Amino acid sequence: MPELLPELLEEQVNTRQRTAITVETHKVTIIRHRNMVRAWCDGCEAECDWLDAEQAAVWSGQTTRAVCRQVEAGVLHFRETGDGRLLICLASLLAEPRGEPQANVPRLNSND
Question: pTM for the complete prediction?
């Protein structure tokens, strides 16, 4: 038995234990503005915040014309008010830069 002791100690010394730690983070951005409208979005199938085209351009870092082009291409969910104002669904605006497809939004072909 005493001759086994040095071998057991050597095995314990050479044994290493590794611990892997994974850190997962999430970013949540809450955007609220007094001029936002909360209403149902058919494209998202949920109640969403809506911005006018100028506000959407500011929030997205684009020009108003670029936002309007996305509306015309069917990329962003939109609606028009009775007085002719264009409202953009904030959820579709925030999802677009990540390249996520928008649910229930018909895409126009370049041939149209």
Answer: 0.56
